UniProtKB/TrEMBL annotation, chain A:
InterPro entries: Ten1_animal_plant. GO terms for biological process: negative regulation of telomere maintenance via telomerase. One of its GO terms (cellular component) is CST complex. This is CST complex subunit TEN1. GO terms for molecular function: single-stranded DNA binding; telomerase inhibitor activity; telomeric DNA binding. Coiled coil: none annotated. Signal peptide: none annotated. It comes from the Eukaryota.
Automatic annotation (TrEMBL), chain B:
This is Nucleic acid-binding OB-fold. Signal peptide: none annotated. Keywords: Chromosome, DNA-binding, Telomere. Pfam families: tRNA_anti-codon (PF01336). Residues 43-130 form the OB domain. GO terms for molecular function: DNA binding. InterPro entries: NA-bd_OB_tRNA, RFA2-like. One of its GO terms (cellular component) is chromosome, telomeric region. Its main location: nucleus. It is found in: Chromosome, Telomere; Nucleus.
């Protein structure tokens, strides 16, 4: 019953994912949420969008998740940076979150970071 | 030491569960930053790992602040611990545990209640109730409750 350490997927918004961002790093564990704007069954790669930002998601490791363009999904996984400096998320988990209050989600992420920062060091706190 | 939370399930984020420290005076109690003393916790997060054995199901819950290991025992029908229990009660417990174990799958969001303890130096939850959440806002609301309780209740020194 050995304890294998799994890094938590730090919740972020797609707006926070840009090349100079602290989250834009190879193999960093993230939790991302957005509307599925495209999905290829052949490659198992989808694209989620939030406002003007988008992110490629590799879903080849996911089972029992059906993808519907136009629905909102949340993924946890590791970010990988391609040689052209474009990022994609290698998803470990994925779920449909149609009905999520995205405004409340964004606001709560900010409050949670502030709370964690006040209560001690956290890799989630800015 | 504040013992007022001993008989309730303290709502904590995973980061705070991992930072609980053994109470110097009470064997099954853990202290949160030297303040409130807890023995039972409630957390909500995404299931990110699942390891089924004949005796128990071990699973990991990721709430964005940390990953906490949870154990759901499935040995009610074979363990000597239950030998003096009413057989009907044991059957009910075993049936409930197996139903909960079947619902625990990677990617689902679960609310876990149970006793907190330390195993090989790492905090883990021995689950008594696991409920898979269908509300897409369940994690957000849990975070907000943890924030409110953390600021208004749990950090209060006795």
């Amino acid at each position: 019953m050995a304890n294998t350490r799994i890094e938590p997927g730090v919740p972020i918004t797609l707006q926070e994912l840009y090349p100079s961002s602290q989250f834009y790093k190879e193999a960093v564990s993230l939790r991302v949420t957005g509307m599925l704007s495209g999905y290829s069954v052949e490659t198992a790669i989808g694209v989620i969008e939030d406002g003007s930002k988008s992110l490629k998601i590799n879903t080849q490791n996911l089972r029992d998740v059906s993808f519907r363009v136009g629905s909102i999904y949340q993924f946890i996984g590791e970010l990988h940076i391609e040689p052209n400096n474009e990022a994609f998320l290698q998803a470990r988990t994925g779920r449909n979150v149609d009905g999520i209050d995205m405004n409340l989600y964004r606001k709560t992420i900010e409050l949670l970071r502030k709370f964690l920062k006040e209560e001690g060091n956290s890799n989630m706190a800015e | 030491m504040d013992r007022s939370l001993q008989n309730t399930h303290a709502k904590l984020v995973a980061r705070d569960i991992q930072r609980l420290t053994q109470s110097p005076t009470e064997s099954n109690s853990f202290s949160l930053l030297g303040g409130a003393c807890v023995s039972r916790v409630e957390t909500v997060g995404t299931i990110v790992s699942r390891d089924l054995t004949p005796k128990f199901l071990k699973f990991g819950v990721d709430d964005g602040t940390g990953c906490v290991t949870c154990v759901l025992w499935l040995n009610q029908l074979t363990s000597s611990y239950f030998s003096r229990w009413d057989p009907d009660t044991i059957l009910l417990l075993a049936s409930a545990a197996r139903k909960q174990a079947a619902a625990i799958r990677i990617g689902a969001v679960a609310r876990v209640r149970g006793r907190v303890g330390s195993y090989r130096g790492v905090m883990q939850i021995t689950a008594t109730v696991v409920v898979v959440e269908r509300d897409p806002n369940a994690e957000i609301l849990h975070w907000l409750e943890c924030l409110r309780l953390g600021q208004s209740c749990y950090r209060i020194q006795s």
